[in-house]
Amino acid sequence: MEKEFMDNMMEILENDEITLDDEFRNLEEWDSLSYLSTIAMIDDEHELVIPREDFSNLKTLRDILKYIKKDKEKNK
Amino acid sequence: MNNLFNLKNKKILISGASGGIGRTTAKILSSIGADCVLIGRDEKRLEETLRGMHGGNHQVFAQDITEYDALKELVKQAVADGKPFDGMVHCAGIETVLPLKILKPEHFEKSFSINVIAGFELAKHVIKKKHFNENGGSLLFLSSVMGSVGSPVKAAYCSSKGALIGGMKALALELAPKKIRVNTVSPAMVVTGMSKALLAKVTDSEKEAILKAHPLGLGEPEDVAWVCAFLLSDASRWITGTDLKVDGGYTAQ
């Protein structure tokens, strides 16, 4: 799941050098379109819509991934 | 003052380049300096297009563009020479002429697949940062007057060409921050293999009505291709989100 998530994020951000510990808001490529694309990708892949308020508390790509994993645990 | 009416050193992708308006557009773009990347299903016919073109670093890809998964790799290969794209023109299209009562979902799906989805999928890969000129460029989609006005027995065609115009406007807004302009060109009837086949099916009086509907007469592929050249060139650098009719007066009535 981690690799898949990072592949998708690389596609969205058009940057192959991102890492899980990057604070995505500090990336040059991060903008409102990449925000929308990220939310839509997570919805598509994991049937999960992250509320804006929750999303605003996530800092790194790893945080997003953790959030997705936690949601999966919850719904097991 | 610079003459902006040229495509010197611009790399342009052309879908539907194996015939009709696509082929003529390839010839004309190459005549004003473009390096063209030709896509079509039939390699032999693409080679024929290539033979009629002016010199330049042209490339040919025989590919069915409704095989969407192949497009990513195709575009990647096309820029493997290190030169990014400056624009594209989606000329590939089919015209479905069937009354509603015998139209099936598959007819709509086929029209939308070639006329609309393949064009936007190609655009998606072409405009990637590593594939496109960082100073921006121009995307063109060949629509039709049938995207704005109706005609009997053309519901599948009209709806797909109208969809192109709607999508074009959305993309024009979405891509403006990247200085990528997006427009459609909408011809009325142009004398190509596709329209000749249609004219062969109609009666003399119907043919006369078609001719009468075009105050300047039927179009030639060149009439459309030169407009594409203009919209791909920097001479049109303040035009985006526009559907430009090239119709000999068809929609003036």
Per CATH, the class of chain A reads Mainly Alpha
Question: The CATH topology of chain A is what?
Answer: Non-ribosomal Peptide Synthetase Peptidyl Carrier Protein, Chain A
CATH topology category name of chain B: Rossmann fold
Largest beta-sheet characterization of chain A: none
- Structural domain tally of chain A: 1
Low-confidence stretches of chain A: none
**CA-based gyration radius of chain B:** 17 Å
Note the beta-strand portion of chain B. 5-15%
How are the strands ordered across the major sheet of chain B? 3-2-1-4-5-6-7
Under the CATH scheme, the architecture of chain A is Orthogonal Bundle
How many helices of chain B does DSSP assign?
Answer: 8
When the domains of chain B are counted, the total is 1
CATH class of chain B: Alpha Beta
**Biggest interface in this structure?**
A-B, 3 and 4 residues
Q: Please identify which CATH superfamily of chain B we are dealing with.
A: NAD(P)-binding Rossmann-like Domain
Mean pLDDT of chain B comes to 96
Write the layout of secondary structure elements.
The complex is a heterodimer of chains A (about 80) and B (about 250).
Chain A: H1 2-13, H2 32-46, H3 52-56, H4 61-74
Helix pairs in contact in A: 1-2
Chain B: E1 11-15, H1 20-31, E2 35-40, H2 43-51, E3 59-62, H3 71-78, E4 87-90, H4 105-126, E5 137-142, H5 155-175, E6 180-187, H6 193-201, H7 204-212, H8 221-232, E7 243-246
Parallel strand pairs in B: 1-2, 1-4, 2-3, 4-5, 5-6, 6-7
Short précis:
The complex is a heterodimer of chains A (76) and B (253). Chain A is an all-alpha fold and 76 residues long.
Describe, in plain words, how this protein is organized in 3D.
The complex is a heterodimer of chains A (76) and B (253). Chain A has 76 residues and is mainly alpha-helical. The two termini of chain A are 16 Å apart. The mean pLDDT of chain A is 94. Chain A has helices at residues 2-13, 32-46, 52-56, 61-74. In chain B, α1 crosses α8 (221-232), α3 (71-78) packs parallel to α4 and α4 packs parallel to α5. In chain B, β1, α1 (20-31) and β2 form a beta-alpha-beta unit. Chain B contains eight helices and seven strands; from the N terminus they run βαβαβαβαβαβαααβ. The termini of chain B are far apart. The longest helix of chain B has 22 residues, at 105-126. With 253 residues, chain B is of the alpha/beta class. Chain B has one domain (11-241): Rossmann fold (3-Layer(aba) Sandwich), CATH 3.40.50. Chain B has helices at 20-31, 43-51, 71-78, 105-126, 155-175, 193-201, 204-212, 221-232; strands at 11-15, 35-40, 59-62, 87-90, 137-142, 180-187, 243-246. The interface between A and B is small, with 3 and 4 residues.
